[in-house]
């Protein structure tokens, strides 16, 4: 289940991609299938080992095109082990709501992103998340849990303050909001409650079968109760430096552009 919409966030074969806080690796796997050179980074060693196993299995099954590469590694989002401008694309999905120093994380992402590169940020949406918090303290008051709820304009302001230029937003996973409301109402660890169990089965069926009826329903409901808010931005191109050689006929400069 992807939160980033790759029709709005296109990848080219050979793009250098960082999936920051990759978790189980869903976006990293999709980028690998699309021919990217992927680094999946997370501080959870167990999840990184599992992601590495899946990368190896995908390679063995020929799921990634020739030239694509994939690496899974442990790392700290506030101290990324990469040189400046190492990546063409950075994805951070459902991570920033966990990290106290979200400005520091954005600064590190901007540092490792090349000028002209693209970034995708996804976080829980304010309205559905607020309901979860109201229904259950256990939903968010856990070690490593959600420490903030972003409003859309607040997240976009953070992105702009970091020096990025937003170019698009949308909401995703409307059908998942009622599931989490049920989880919070019946107990976040109570998967046996009949409403929770039944709705989970519906979601699994929807993910596996992708029926047109539920696809259309989710598309219609996403603006209203989409569980995730997704923002896309670019890092501005650098202007030509004074040290670059000039010609007798013209001076060439680079200008920023939105993807």
From TrEMBL:
Organism ancestry: Bacteria, Bacillati, Actinomycetota, Actinomycetes, Kitasatosporales
Bias kind Low complexity: ranges: 240-259
The EC number(s) this enzyme carries: 2.1.1.-
Any one of the GO BP annotations: methylation
Keyword Transferase: yes
InterPro entries linked to this entry: Methyltransf_11, SAM-dependent_MTases_sf
Region (Disordered) residue spans: 238-259
Domain Methyltransferase type positions: 18-120
Entry's Gene Ontology molecular function annotations: methyltransferase activity
Keyword Nucleus part of the UniProt annotation: no
Name by which UniProt lists this protein: Class I SAM-dependent methyltransferase
Keywords attached to this entry: Methyltransferase, Transferase
